[in-house]
């Protein structure tokens, strides 16, 4: 387990548990793709305003809605919205085909992130020649990244706010955010004094979440990653309970 929590207003570290080790973070790495897409929109690159087709080589299952929709093509910004809202795997692959994994890596490095990376496109199965994980990261860097987004410091304020807007639609509140009592499908505004933007990552033996949350008394940037032996439902439930407990501790600080 790795965790990092800091006060968003003062920068003071509130929790640090092996926060610099690198762990698999599953879909959390899609944030890096969204940052690159948003930066291109801010720079008014023509390719960032195109309409992209889904193709057979982009096909992938599991999370997301586009694979279940009839629309054969969508605008870039709509694809980013799907990634933010449902961690859409198909939309992720189509955007990656458009912007290129190398561009995402270069943008990541330009932000000073050394232990956090999007390693590959999304695959239903990973072979010996594929990256072993979709993404990896340290919780120290992920908490910093969300704090920087909240302060408008990732590329520029417009790029940062656009990424936060996409992520604010996120519908997975099953981990740390489960403690906040929010509506998973509608929490873009303040609810009982709580305002949340987060991103989760889920894979076999991996549960990870990073975000920013503001309450009546304070605001924090946080990241928690757990890698575990996924040998049964009991193991998953123990991890879920641990993440929920972290959320309760955050809630106590915020209120």
Automatic annotation (TrEMBL):
One Pfam family recorded for the sequence: Beta-lactamase2
UniProt cross-references to PANTHER family, sorted A to Z: BETA-LACTAMASE (PTHR35333), BETA-LACTAMASE-TYPE TRANSPEPTIDASE FOLD CONTAINING PROTEIN (PTHR35333:SF3)
Species name: Pseudolysinimonas kribbensis
Sample GO molecular function, one term: hydrolase activity
Sequence ranges assigned to domain Beta-lactamase class A catalytic in this UniProt record: 3-226
Keywords, sorted A to Z: Hydrolase
Source organism superkingdom: Bacteria
Full protein name: Serine hydrolase
Lineage, top ranks: Bacteria, Bacillati, Actinomycetota, Actinomycetes, Micrococcales
């Amino acid at each position: 387990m790795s965790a990092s929590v800091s006060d968003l207003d003062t920068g003071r570290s509130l929790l640090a548990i092996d926060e610099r080790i690198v762990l698999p973070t599953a879909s959390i790495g899609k944030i890096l793709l969204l940052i690159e897409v948003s930066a291109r929109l801010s720079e008014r690159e023509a390719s960032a305003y195109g309409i992209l087709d889904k193709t057979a080589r982009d096909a992938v299952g599991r999370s997301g809605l586009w694979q279940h929709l009839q629309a054969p093509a969508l605008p870039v910004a709509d694809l980013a919205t799907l990634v933010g809202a449902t961690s859409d795997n198909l939309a992720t692959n189509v955007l990656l085909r458009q912007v290129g994994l190398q561009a995402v890596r270069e943008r990541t490095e330009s932000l000073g992130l050394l232990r956090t990376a999007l390693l590959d496109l999304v695959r239903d199965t990973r072979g010996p020649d594929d990256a072993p994980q979709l993404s990896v990261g340290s919780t120290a860097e992920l908490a910093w990244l969300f704090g920087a987004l909240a302060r408008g410091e990732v590329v520029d304020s417009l790029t940062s706010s656009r990424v936060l807007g996409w992520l604010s639609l996120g519908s997975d509140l099953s981990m740390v955010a489960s403690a906040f009592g929010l509506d998973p499908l509608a929490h873009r505004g303040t609810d009982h004094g709580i305002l949340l933007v987060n991103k989760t990552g889920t894979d076999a033996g991996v549960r990870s979440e990073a975000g920013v949350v503001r309450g009546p008394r304070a605001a924090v940037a946080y990241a928690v990653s757990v890698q575990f032996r996924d040998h049964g439902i009991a193991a998953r439930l123990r991890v879920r309970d641990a993440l929920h407990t972290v959320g309760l501790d955050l809630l106590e600080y915020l209120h």
